[in-house]
Amino acid sequence: MRSTSSDRALRVVATTALLGLAACTLSEAPRHPRPALPASPSVAAAPLECPKLVRLERHAPARWRGALQGDGEVVTFELWSERERCYDRDQKARPLVLLVPMLAGGAALMDFVGDSMYSRGFDVALCNRAGSAMKPGQRGAELQELFRRTVLHQRLMLTWLRRDRDQPQFVLGISLGGMVATAVAAQEPAVAGTAICLSGGHLESLIPASREPRVQRWVEWRQQVDGVGLDHVRWELREVLQYEPMALASAVPTAKVLFVSATLDDVVPPRNQDLLWEALGRPSRLFVPFGHYTAALAIAPILSAAASHFRARTG
């Protein structure tokens, strides 16, 4: 049978992906990793009361949807877990991975990641977004408030799960979710480990340099509507964003972190990836030879590396 051009194209894509996966490399953490250091007082974690569960419904085998209420917030969430096991004290609880959502979209990817981590032996929780980021109408103050609420939602979820079950807790964030994961790990010392994927720091330089269309449209909106230049945007981000990952990274012990970098990323430039990795104390680092979105071709080795990192820290 004669091969078609689409068949040949698919073979080229598959071959390229396989060669790329073979080129994934892992660098080890320092022999003497940096311990946690004090975080900036402006982002010191306030203690939380345990939130109240207001809804929990099964919608598939080992899949639940629910809502929590606490600290003036309502947190809706997805949960991958056999909840009946919670009350069997002879059954050792599975470790839990909290997934942090991305900037926009990505529902199918988050579903896949949740299913994959559950199949690897972890319970999984995912908070729905507190709001959509980087859209017209938001300036520095609105972005700071959204970031604060997003971090708070993750902390409320972890707090409720800790009361409900005695299980090691981990955090996995991709892209913007990796920035949030940095903040959560800094403010929740009980978190046993975190995987920060395709993420970076120094937002005052990252945002103007990003090739993400949504981010570019936001920068253009600021220039056209507010009549400001890039220098003003950088200044505002530096002055207002207290939850800048670079300000929180020092409070995360290096040994807890797996850092995943996409070497061809133009959404989170390599320079900004390097800056956050350095601020985290040069933790263990997986390099994937793809861009920000084509890194999805390496999702299996990324999740395998995260699962191995978490298992090594279950104690």
Question: What's the topology here?
Answer:
Elements: H1 5-22, E1 25-27, E2 52-60, E3 63-70, E4 73-80, E5 96-100, H2 107-119, E6 123-127, H3 140-164, E7 169-174, H4 176-187, E8 193-197, H5 203-209, H6 213-225, H7 230-240, H8 245-248, E9 257-262, H9 270-279, E10 284-288, H10 299-312
Parallel strand pairs: 5-6, 5-7, 7-8, 8-9, 9-10
Antiparallel strand pairs: 1-10, 2-3, 3-4, 4-6
Helix pairs in contact: 3-4, 5-7
Textual characterization of the structure:
By secondary structure, the chain is an alpha/beta fold. It has ten helices and ten strands. It has a ten-stranded mixed beta sheet with strand order 1-10-9-8-7-5-6-4-3-2, sandwiched between helices. α4 (176-187) links the parallel β7 (169-174) and β8. It starts with a helix and ends with a helix. The model is unreliable at 12-17 and 85-90 (pLDDT under 50).
The general outline is globular
Q: How far do the termini sit from each other?
A: 56 Å
Look at the structure and give the mean pLDDT.
Answer: 89
Strands of the largest sheet, in order across it?
1-10-9-8-7-5-6-4-3-2
Structural class per helix/strand content?
Answer: alpha/beta
Number of strands: 10
Question: Can you tell me the number of structural domains?
Answer: 1
Q: How much is the radius of gyration in Å?
A: 20 Å
CATH top level assignment: Alpha Beta
- Helical content stands at 40-55%
The number of helical runs is: 10
CATH architecture: 3-Layer(aba) Sandwich
Described by strand count, sense and barrel closure, the largest sheet is: 10 strands, mixed
By CATH, the topology is Rossmann fold
Which percent band covers the strand fraction?
15-25%
Q: Catalogue the unreliable spans.
A: 12-17, 85-90
CATH H-level superfamily title? Alpha/Beta hydrolase fold, catalytic domain
Please provide the ordered H/E string of secondary-structure elements.
HEEEEEHEHEHEHHHHEHEH
